[in-house]
Design brief:
The complex is a heterodimer of chains A (about 270) and B (about 290). With about 270 residues, chain A is mainly α. Chain A has 2 domains: about 140 residues, no CATH class; about 80 residues, no CATH class. Chain A contains 11 helices and 2 strands, in the order αααααββαααααα. Chain A has a two-stranded antiparallel sheet. In chain A, α2 runs parallel beside α11 and α8 crosses α10. Chain A is flat, with a radius of gyration of 24 Å. Chain A starts with 15 loop residues before the first helix and ends with a helix. Chain B is α/β, with parallel strands linked by helices. Chain B has 2 domains: about 240 residues, P-loop containing nucleotide triphosphate hydrolases (Rossmann fold, 3-Layer(aba) Sandwich); about 45 residues, no CATH class. Classes of the chains: A mainly alpha (about 270), B alpha/beta (about 290). The interface between A and B is medium-sized, with 25 and 28 residues.
Chain lengths: ~270, ~290
């Protein structure tokens, strides 16, 4: 199993962030993604960084774990930084290596963009780290509710989402199991020429598809056996209710946004 | 091949909030040519143990040796493929690993990976199909058209066709009908004896352990709870109850019998017929006394 990539991995907990209404978290992150692009000065960036780091600390998840999970993205961040360093030519020349001039503007631009990138990924991964997939789909279903008016199948869409999210770990386990079984029969997934390694995927994919289809059929049957027939008149075990906590977060976020607007250009 | 576990621990997802110790400080020795049953409750670390036997996972701490192969956290044999050829593993529900177009190709898949010559593969496939009790007509069919029991046999044939020296069986009869279960276990035992295999059977069935095993290892929570001969280990009711296990039916029966008739009948892993004879003897003797 892939231990490095945690995007989409929920870590159970009881922190303030964990207990927020998923709709609050989604809304705040949605707007955060916009305001990140409005920051253009040291202070305005600091406001955003403080907000993001504060949220990170309140999740009470090991910081080391969160940062380790971002490792695949570090590469992208560094790459963007270097790209800006090379392409931008604003400001004064700082150093000149082999005909490449690095401008002061480029350095600043590179930093700014990398920080934006980092903030975006950090904050969005905080959502999935502290919210179960089911909560997220529930929230999306609820937030898309108005679209029902135009006959958009909101419930079905949410159901599809939760089913596919539900089966990701199952499929991962299945993949792990089957690849181990085939490795025991002498398949080598890791070494050898590329051609052989591509061919080695067949004994993995065929059983995986077979079992996925079988599972889908069984699930459909089980749902029908229990009388499932769509969203009409269906009630929920866990209603989403906005609490004091959520209003507090909204107010805090509005303050952060206001601060950001005030500190722009400083 | 001798197998040793020397203070082996295995931790899943090390250094994450999900870190979880599946095996803790496990040591045992399995002499070459013996039949060992590994018994334990769900989650006791049986499956993790199995994966150490052919290097699918390496111990987080400690050392595993299989014959001349040695596995530690930062050391693995240069020739993993050889090790995997020597150790054949039949996983739980092995029919999930079928993928080829025909039964024949699927059985030949393992041997082909281990570079067995073409004509030799042909022979092995024929031999093994009769051995596992599959009709030869099925060889040309798609494995996905077969019944569950037949699929299981194909998958097992696929492992046996690689001619392992160590055979690892993870609940190979789960989900089969009672007759199929017997046939299958007898087949494994027969093969174990004829080819002098070192066999490790993971099972929930105390009956199978009594019937086939030379040694029993009982796992609980990733550590060794008991180890020894089946007649010694599997008669300890209290100890087994503590880890949600039951003594074999025959032991239960003997205990109940001894209590009721106040006669001692020793448990020596005798067959049902032998036990019946002994009981008759005991009852006759008791009758004469009075």
């Amino acid at each position: 199993m892939n231990n490095a990539l945690i995007i989409g991995q929920y870590v159970p907990g009881e922190s303030f962030v964990h207990r927020l209404d998923p709709r609050t978290k989604i809304t705040v992150i949605f707007f955060f993604v916009f305001i990140v692009f409005l920051a253009n000065s040291v202070i305005s960036y600091s406001v955003l960084i403080v907000f993001a780091l504060a949220s990170m600390f309140t999740t009470r998840i090991q910081i080391r774990y969160i940062l380790k999970g971002l490792t695949p993205v570090w590469f992208l961040i560094v790459f963007t930084f270097l790209l800006h360093l090379i392409v931008t030519n604003k400001g004064t020349v700082l150093i000149d290596i082999f005909g490449f001039s690095i401008y002061s503007g480029a350095l600043i631009q590179g930093f700014a963009i990398s920080i934006r990138f980092f903030l975006l990924i950090l904050v969005t991964s905080l959502l999935t780290l502290t919210t179960t997939p089911i909560e997220i789909t529930d929230a999306i279903e609820d937030m898309l509710h108005p679209l029902k008016r135009i006959r958009f199948p909101v419930h079905e869409l949410a159901l599809m989402m939760s089913i596919s999210l539900r089966f990701i770990p199952t499929l991962m386990q299945e993949t792990d199991k089957i690849s181990k079984a085939q490795a025991s029969r002498g398949v080598d997934f890791r070494t050898g020429p590329l051609r052989d390694r591509v061919k080695a995927v067949v004994p993995l994919l065929v059983p995986l598809f077979v079992s996925a289809f079988k599972r889908a059929e069984e699930l459909a049957m089980a749902m029908e056996a229990r009388g499932y027939q769509g969203g009409e008149g269906r009630t929920k075990l866990r209603e989403l209710i906005l609490g004091k906590r959520d209003y507090m977060v909204f107010i805090l976020f509005i303050i952060v946004t206001a601060l950001l607007f005030l500190t722009r250009n400083y | 091949m001798d197998i040793t576990f020397n203070h082996v621990s295995y931790i899943y997802q090390k250094n994450t909030p999900f870190a979880h110790k599946a095996i803790a400080d496990l040591s045992f020795y399995i002499p070459s040519g013996t039949f060992t049953a590994v018994i334990g409750h769900t989650g006791s670390g049986k499956s993790t143990l199995i994966q150490h036997l052919n290097g699918l996972v390496r111990p987080s701490e400690g050392e595993v040796t299989i014959g001349k192969y040695r596995l530690t956290n930062d050391e693995k044999p240069d020739n993993m493929k050889m090790l995997r050829n020597l150790v054949g593993v039949v996983f739980q529900y092995p029919e999930h690993q079928l993928f080829e177009e025909t039964v024949k190709k699927d059985i030949a898949f393992g041997p082909k990976n281990f570079n067995v010559p073409e004509d030799e593969i042909e022979n092995r496939v024929r031999d093994i199909t009769t051995e596992v009790g599959l009709p030869e007509e099925l060889l040309g069919r798609s494995p996905f058209e077969l019944s569950g029991g037949q699929m299981r046999r194909v998958a097992i044939a696929g492992v046996l066709a690689t001619k392992p020296k160590v055979l690892v069986l993870d609940e190979p009869t789960a989900g089969l009908d009672p007759r199929g279960q017997h046939e299958m276990m007898d087949m494994f035992y027969d093969m174990h004896q004829r080819q002098a295999l070192t066999t490790i059977l993971v099972t929930h069935s105390m009956e199978d352990a009594v019937k086939y095993a030379d040694n029993v290892i009982i796992l609980n929570d990733g550590t060794k709870y008991m180890e020894g001969k089946p007649e010694d280990v599997l008669t300890q009711r209290e100890a087994l109850h503590n880890v949600q296990l039951d003594v074999p039916e025959m032991v239960q029966f003997i205990n109940a019998f001894s209590e009721k008739f106040e006669q001692k009948v020793p448990f020596r892993r005798q067959s049902e017929a032998e036990l019946a004879r002994e009981i008759r003897q005991v009852l006759k003797g008791a009758g004469k006394d009075e």
